[in-house]
């Protein structure tokens, strides 16, 4: 059994505190990015833990993904329902999560978390690296990248692209979330 799930079932205060420390900031960040407040995020986090506790206690929960991925799936589904009730405008989700079965939901949420981590670390790169990689991802020819960025040669542009990709990979792998999203 997952250690986080075990801590919740056993009402272990130390384990539950660790869950709050590790995962609550991520849920709050998600809520804030989707028309919510810090308070909304704190409430949603607690409600999500209660849902998981009730499911586990009723033996209706078998984790096939990491605890955080499942927690995020529960939180996201609850937040979507709250947003629908509030009828706030300007909120978009890539899928209508209410009509997706749980296995698909976990896969979709895992992918969204991976993309979110990638975007966050991409933004942490230098401006030159972001610009170079953006053009590379858009399949701009290297000779055009050299001209647009004022670089000295195609070989230098390739070397710089490699360095930027390596830096991005290192930033992603250094993040605590990386191991959970493998």
Q: What is the CATH first-level class name of the largest domain?
A: Mainly Alpha
Mean pLDDT: 83
Please provide the ordered H/E string of secondary-structure elements.
HHHHHHHHH
Determine the N-to-C terminus distance.
19 Å
Strand coverage percent: under 5%
Number of helices: 9
> Any idea how many domains?
2
Shape assignment: elongated
Under the CATH scheme, the architecture of the largest domain is: Orthogonal Bundle
Main sheet overview:
none
CATH topology of the largest domain: Rna Polymerase Sigma Factor, Chain: A
Give the radius of gyration: 20 Å
Can you give the helix content as a percent range? Answer: over 70%
In total, how many beta strands? 0
Q: What can you tell me about this protein's structure?
A:
There is one protein chain. This protein is mainly alpha-helical and 182 residues long. The protein folds into two domains: 1-88, Orthogonal Bundle (Rna Polymerase Sigma Factor, Chain: A), CATH 1.10.1740; 99-182, Arc Repressor Mutant, subunit A. It is 74% helix and 0% strand. The two termini are 19 Å apart. Mean pLDDT is 83; it is low at 94-100.
Short description:
With 182 residues, the chain is mainly alpha-helical. It is built from nine helices and no strands.
Q: What secondary-structure arrangement, pairings included, does this model have?
A:
Layout: H1 3-9, H2 13-33, H3 38-57, H4 67-86, H5 102-123, H6 127-137, H7 142-149, H8 154-174, H9 177-180
Helix pairs in contact: 1-2, 2-3, 2-4, 3-4, 4-5, 6-8
List keywords for this structure.
single chain; 182 residues; mainly alpha; Rna Polymerase Sigma Factor, Chain: A; 2 domains; 9 helices; elongated
């Amino acid at each position: 059994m997952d250690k986080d799930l075990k801590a919740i079932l056993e009402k272990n205060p130390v384990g539950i505190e660790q869950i709050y420390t590790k995962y609550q900031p991520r849920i709050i960040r998600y809520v804030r990015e989707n028309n919510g407040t810090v308070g909304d995020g704190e409430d949603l986090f607690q409600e999500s833990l209660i849902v998981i506790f009730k499911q586990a206690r009723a033996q209706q929960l078998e984790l096939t993904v990491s605890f955080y991925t499942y927690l995020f799936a529960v939180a996201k589904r609850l937040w979507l329902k709250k947003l629908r009730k509030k009828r706030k405008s300007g909120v978009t989700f890539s899928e209508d999560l209410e009509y997706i079965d749980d296995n698909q939901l976990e896969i979709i949420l895992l992918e969204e978390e991976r993309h979110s981590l990638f975007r966050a670390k991409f933004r942490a790169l230098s401006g030159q690296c972001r610009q170079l990689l953006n053009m590379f991802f858009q399949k701009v020819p290297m000779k055009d990248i050299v001209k647009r960025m004022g670089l000295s040669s195609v070989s230098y542009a390739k070397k710089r692209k490699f360095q930027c990709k390596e830096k991005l990979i290192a930033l992603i792998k250094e993040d605590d979330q990386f191991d959970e999203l493998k």
